[in-house]
Design a protein that fits this description.
With about 260 residues, this protein is an alpha+beta fold. The protein has two domains: about 110 residues, no CATH class; about 110 residues, 2-Layer Sandwich (Alpha-Beta Plaits), CATH 3.30.70. The protein is built from eleven helices and nine strands. The strands form two sheets. Strands 1, 2, 3, 4 and 5 form a five-stranded antiparallel β-sheet that branches. Strands 7-8-6-9 form a four-stranded antiparallel β-sheet. Helix 8 packs antiparallel against helix 9. Keywords: Gas vesicle. It is found in: Gas vesicle. This is Gas vesicle protein GvpFL. Belongs to the gas vesicle GvpF/GvpL family.
């Protein structure tokens, strides 16, 4: 069984002064063509298909993978590798670096002095429902019409209101999601959106309305976080929850292309 496969965490274009507690995990450094690769030696049995199907194993080792990269980020920009990236030998790793060296240089220039932040925004539709009279002109107008109508007509209009409420809440969620995205984008170098997670996947009871990542200049990171906190405090009363995490390795803003 092969026991000297190279499991790669990240590449830096600076010396990686890795903390001692990480070195103790058996991590190694390979310097080649002005790049510094952080890796460890593994065997075929360490990363089998069955292991990847084991949710607990996957979560534990993915977390460790991320932890190593975040520790390396303390000493400069890094290009992170996805969990489970393995090379057969130093020769194959060096070939990868040679083949993609121009792209690696461009990516390092792009992410220099920048950080990735993730923003997830959720809506508690029960809370939002209670504020629709003030947030939706159509609901406000319909409420006034119902109040001035006869009992029979009011009954019919209330049925109309039930259907209208769902449409109006969807509209407001969309508007607020776009507002948040635009505000954060203006403070960022680049941004990406991802698929909205269903409640079963998010583990929450409220509804996700935005799932995005932003590449933020180090000079703007404090303002970015402050804006996220401001949004969280401003809009919680109408049911919106702003969840910001980071800084993360810039997984979503790296594009490695062969020369």
């Amino acid at each position: 069984m092969i026991t000297n496969l190279l499991y790669v965490y990240c590449i830096s274009n600076n010396p990686l002064m890795v903390p001692s507690e990480i070195v103790s995990r058996g991590l190694k450094s390979l310097i080649f063509n002005d790049f510094n690769v952080l890796y460890k030696l593994v065997s075929e049995s360490d990363y089998t298909e069955n292991n990847f199907l084991d949710i607990k194993w996957l979560e534990t080792n993915s977390r460790k993978h991320m932890g190593v990269i975040i520790a390396a980020m303390e000493f400069g920009a890094v290009i992170p590798f996805k969990f489970g990236t393995i090379f057969n030998s130093k020769t194959s790793l060096k070939k990868f670096i040679t083949d993609y060296s121009d792209s690696l240089v461009k990516n390092f220039k792009y992410i220099k002095e920048k950080e990735e932040y993730a923003v997830k925004i959720y809506c508690d539709r029960k809370v939002l429902l209670g504020r629709m009279g003030e947030l939706s002109k159509e609901i406000e107008s319909l409420d006034k019409t119902i109040a001035a109508s006869s009992p029979g007509k009011a009954y019919l209009l209330k049925s109309k209101k039930t259907a209208l409420l769902e449409d109006e809440m969807d509209k407001i969620c969309s508007e607020y999601g776009q507002k948040y995205y635009n505000e954060f984008s203006h403070m960022s170098v680049s941004s990406n959106t991802a698929n909205l997670l269903m409640k079963e996947s998010s583990g929450r009871t409220d509804t996700m309305i935005l799932n995005a990542t932003f590449l933020v200049s180090n000079r703007s990171s404090d303002d970015f976080i402050k804006k996220a906190n401001d949004f969280a405090n401003e809009d919680i009363h109408i049911g919106f929850c702003v969840e910001t995490t980071g800084p993360w390795p810039p997984f979503n803003f790296i594009s490695i292309k062969e020369k």
